[in-house]
């Protein structure tokens, strides 16, 4: 775990390899689809599912892409966001005939894509469909994590300090501009140096890390209290959020009656008196 943490600390270009199920590759090969799950010459992982047909751009995106380069040339100081805003203004003033022409082009390409996509889906095996589903789920989870990280940064959440080992690595980090193999070798050497480090020297890093952790915990307490006061409970750890008890549980606690089900219990109906003969 420590070596992985050092890799995240010193090597920014990450190689993300998605997990592959053993059956997905063999099943894809048996049905005649191009499928590989090994690393290519560039060091990236190839998919074990065929490439999905690319969906055509809608009318507005098609127009914006066609004028983006000219807008960028005419406005060299503009940011990509400013270019998008300028394209939106151009789109609003575009005549209906040009819009109708772009819409027809989009519909033609959309019809072709629908046919290709239907053929693509029909060729997928169950294993490949499951793999696509897992990759989509991973992308959604990654998006949620990035949004949460961005939100916490905007709210000013204190940054968690490094432990003793990572502090040692940060002060003895490898030289920049090395290859992946050289980086890997130097990080391995750092791990060996940490093991051979004298006890007194290691204790120094440990005490520094403990002091930083104490400061971090105090800052987190102040920050979380601030978030609770501003009703930003979503940013606070769950264990620090005290939810009020439900009315049913409070009533049961006072009367000493255990709560089994919160659903209302229907009262028994009174028996109707039998008609006299």
TrEMBL record:
Q: Which UniProt keywords apply?
A: Coiled coil, DNA-binding, Nucleus
- Per the database record, which ranges form the HMG box domain? 53-121, 158-224
Which parts form a coiled-coil structure per UniProt? 117-147, 199-233
Entry's Gene Ontology BP terms: regulation of transcription by RNA polymerase II
Q: Where is this region: Disordered?
A: 245-277
Q: Which residues bind DNA?
A: 53-121, 158-224
* Any one annotated GO CC term: nucleus
> Annotated Gene Ontology MF terms?
DNA binding
Q: Which InterPro entries match?
A: HMG_box_dom (IPR009071), HMG_box_dom_sf (IPR036910), HMGB (IPR050342)
Protein name in UniProt = HMG box domain-containing protein
* Source organism: Anopheles merus (Mosquito)
